[in-house]
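Final paragraph of the annual report: two paired records, presented back to back.
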Amino acid sequence: MATRTRNPGTDWLASCAPDPVQVHRSWDRDELALVRSGALWVAVEAAITPTVTAMQRIGPDCLGPVLVYPGADRAWWLLAPGAADLLADLPQLAVHPAGWGLRCPPADRYVNGLGWLEEPDGSGQLTNPAALVAAFGPAGSTRRPAGAAR
């Protein structure tokens, strides 16, 4: 098997697991790796179309990793632990508890239909929860794009 160049985002994801070596082994076999949420981030689940719209509203400065599975119309945002309280009033978002397992590919490629719409960059930057609330909240969900018909 060809050796792949290391990617900082991939290394960061692996470092979030108790056994980073096992995570890399899964990825080397082109398999998804199970990385559990907890100390560094929690996963927030949403449908893909509203996720893409929210990503455009949030912009790159406040955006962290976003994993997508188009075949199931699912997306997972990585946010700092403790963000659940801010998101409680948004029924279109499901905050998974610490210890929940996210099956994910490495940062730089799709595996089994899952891939990063916004890749982890290795810095540990996560989506700003206030920006996510603004993008998914009532004001964000009713805002029309510029030039849209009324």
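The closing record of the year follows.
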Amino acid sequence: MEHYNFAQKIMTLALFAIVLSSVNIEVVRAQGICNVSGEGLMSCRPSITPPYPTAPTAQCCNALSRADMACLCSYKNSQLLPSLGIDPNLAIQLPQKCRLPNPPRC
């Protein structure tokens, strides 16, 4: 009986973690971060997700041109990006790939 309760608690915790990560994804999509809209973030997603990232689109680069780069750099070592399926190293390369002037040095 005690083993069953422990297993039940683990399953409940795992389910909670899945729901919480889903909520985080939806909040980022809806609100955006660092002056980049949720729509702008989603347009960049194919360029920052492994294993086969694409070249950034004009829509992605346009959204990134309005971004607060210092704010974006603050996410470099955050667990948020990997939890969303984003490779931080690919994300840091985006300003240069978009040929934005003065890309940040995170």
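The mean pLDDT is 78. This concludes the annual technical report; the extension proposal builds directly on these records.
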